# Entry
Amino acid sequence: MTNMFKKAFRYDQTSVRLEIEGFPDTSLGQHEGQIGIISSWKLELVGSADLEGKREHLQEMMLRVLPYARYLLSGVRRSFGDEKSTVQICSHDQIHQLLLRSSQPGVDPLMLYLDDAELSDLVRCLDELRMDSRVIIPWDVPIQAPLSRKELVDRIPLFQRLSPPFLGGTALLLATFVTLLLSVELTPETKRLDGTSSPVNKEEKVFSR
# Structure
């Protein structure tokens, strides 16, 4: 009877395939054709070993990968997860490093290296699952609010942030200096016997004996 309600949904992209299996949660009034309890899932990435795990691992992947991609699209490179997380993702040069830790003791962590296209495919598969109305599961993924002004400003290196004001101030000082030079009228002077000086009148000559 249980197998009659078992369903499998698959989400395909060019380099990634995500498949889940499960049953409706009848205690919540779910019906055949829906999944409220995930019994298994499998993630296939081209050139990598297939990944399997519990629902908690899949949810952890959503919590790390989706916000990472969102920040990346906004020009902010930020890592998500730490050394204690089941899933950790960060960028190194032009490659995205996805580290997966098993909950079983004695199993070494698995490091995956994704390019932009593979990361994009993974994000699409996770988003399709999260938005699938047939999968009635509270993923508890935070609402994607816009990045704060500080986060957007911090993405710009300090040198680039300081360069425009510095160059603008330098240009202003230079313009002021040139203006002052041009405003000073340089006129020839004649020496008087009393030690004072006065400008030369072009129409008269000053003689001294």
Observations:
- The CA atoms of residues 32 and 118 lie 33 Å apart.
